[in-house]
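Review this chain:
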Amino acid sequence: MIRAYTFLLRPTARRQVALGEMLRDHCSLYNGALQERRDAYRHASKTSVRYGDQSAQLKDIRAFDPERQGRWSFSSQQATLRRLDKAFQAFFRRVKAGQTPGYPRFKGVGHFDTVTFPKDGDGCRWDSTPLDRQTRVRLQGVGHIRVHQHRPVQGHVKTISVKREGNRWYVVLACDDVPAQELPPTGAVAGIDMGVAHFLTTSDGEHVGNPRFLQAMADELTGAQRHLATFPKRTRQRTKKHRAAARKVAKLHGKIRRQRADFHHKTARTLVRDYDVIAHERLGTAGMTKSPAPKPDPDRPGGFLPNGAAAKAGLNRSILDAGWAQFLGILANKAESAGRLVIPVDARNTSRTCPECGHVAKENRVTQAKFECTVCGFAANADHVGATNVLLRAGLVHCAAA
């Protein structure tokens, strides 16, 4: 299996400055390569510049600017150019598919946060040591940095990435040949229904509460964002107070993100530990959180009819705060590592279908929490009904009964 390990870095003040310079220079390389592609297409008869052409120039670039480009790993700079090339490949793919293209943009220094080293030992070295000893990672041009390694690394380290999140630094190890750690079988199966009132409900009738981390910190986050918005545009990114206000907003978002990820990992671990097979709805959160289309008013040219956008915005915010897509991805990874099976099923009408008689109607869903079949009269919690139908669609009812 392929797995990624993320560890917190603890750089000294000097190493932290060097890490910032590494990001700045790789960002400059990225933007310079993007500018070259734009200029070649606009002024040289629509000539396309590819990764191979730009990679061949790296040797001359490093010799011309040894202080800013020559001190860093050649392989990491190639990875930065590949990153730009992938952005252009995705752009042309969207153009051919008729989607919104999204032309690659120049990166500001504050928005270029990752440098990748494609191979352990080439410009970087992971110093693998037991947990009772101090672990370090060595980066060309930076030096040795202490790593807070909170768990052992298994498998073979393939690539190493250094990432900045706010004022924190992380190292991400991508490893292959990671052995599975299978858990003993329990003989239990479950279907789960994702929701907003409850984060999830199992077919056994157990509810897991929705922590609503964004809502819990909404007042503090709103105050920080309002303070940031008070700075006029002409002084933004120029004053110390503005940078401090921006860091505070980023810090709050980072805390919410870490709380949500921690909750997802713990909840997924509990499900994987308790059940051999887990079925869940196949959810497309990108489509579910789209804003409703505007409704032109035929009686008022240029006017629009109410379309429920305000109410839909609140629902979208709750769905994104729950983070269903991230949770289901974590659940699939943990299940694979533990030798469990995860089955996605069609999510349509799972909360409108009677599990007793099979009747499907929106009238069956009386309220958000209550289900009552209009044909057979079966009544139960709506989320529990949804989880039961997920179990039925996965074909696991006979396993649960056994």
Summary: The first strand starts at residue 3 and ends at 10.
